[in-house]
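Worked example

This section walks through a single chain of length 451. The input is the sequence exactly as stored; nothing has been trimmed or padded.
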Amino acid sequence: MNGGVGFGGGGARGGVAQVRAARVTVTAAGAGVLLLLGVAGFRSVALVAAGLAGAACSAAGLWWALTRRGPARVSGAVLTGAAPVAVVALYAAAGLLWLVLLCGALWGVAVVAGRSALRADTVPHAPREDRTAPPRRPFIIVNPRSGGGKAVRFRLKERAEALGAEVVLLDHDRRQDVAALARRAVARGADLLGVAGGDGTQALVAGVAAECGVPFLVVPSGTRNHFAMDLGLDRRDPAACLGALEDGVELRVDLGRVAGRAFVNNASFGAYAAVVQSPAYRDDKVRTILRLLPGVLAGHHLPRLVVRCGDVTVDAPQAVLVSNNCYGVGDRAGLGRRERLDAGRLGMLGVKVDSAAQAAALLRGRRAPGLTVLTGREVVVDADGPEVRVGVDGEALTLRPPVRCVIEPGALRVRVPRDRPGVPRSRPRLDWPRLCELALPERWYRRVHRP
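Given that input, the structure is written out below as tokens.
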């Protein structure tokens, strides 16, 4: 039985490097606070308030820049850039800019050292690897235009054929059903399906692979390749992934489905889904977003959404993201990457912002009142209109509500190279009680954890 009072971290005493990093964290953070109070005194409150006000004004200006047109958009853009400049000028006029920069540097050191200390407490999830025989008749679909022509630059077709794969190049001059191509290949005896392309094409063929019970090969030759990143593949060298045809292992991962269609990353509803519907989106993403976003965020020509996840109902969100497993907690809104792909849970992120003040509140991350973060086995998106626009791994669809999203645990067999970079550890949240516990002198630590 523990006779002392712990700090809440409850972890075991760390190694020497972890303890040193925790002590650097506590020392640097404390020094920054004491320096600010010692030099600025009561003015330190005004300095912090000015910084927070500047950040809030920048967020509000960004909101106006995105949701308005004409002079209002220009004014919002000016405010977004001018607010931080005004804060810096205020610090300089008060003769305290050096103090703010020094304290900021100390707190930056504290954050870096704190994450380093807490990283030792996190145990990265390692999915089970199954050693299986190499495929005898692999079939790979290559999108030559994806990722700005990566498939051509890395000679993916020639390299795959040299490894015994049947390769089909997509012809953009005519519409091709990649799912039908994959099904016909399995009917002819293909024992592996692969895609060299973006996440949208990956999802279509992954759905066929799961249905047919054959392994799936990911060759990341798209633009972002989020699925490949979360699988721990080498996105810089797509050709390295072809090594799985000779020396590979199989992973079992989950597959999401929206109205029966497979997705490997996410399905989006509302603002983003409406933007990707535009024919101009693929050719000029930034200009298309700026042109369409004001009307989308204002709700023009969009149905009112109602989202149900378990016992929770989210009414009238402007944007909804349903993901195949949950995005990590290290980012402000949790949109960086997924720590695992086999947890058997959907992630749901809903955003509802109606004013500049609510946009500024999003700086609080997951604690923002306009942000809803949930997990579940099923998410249902309903609407007050006859159809709902959906972006499925970046591909535009139109579906009839209610739209049901589910997850199929372990449905997809993914063949990956045995030798691959792996999934990097996610950034841990700063757990100050745990850091203070680690930083305690040994005798104090033993007293706190006295049996």
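What to look for: The first strand starts at residue 130 and ends at 131.
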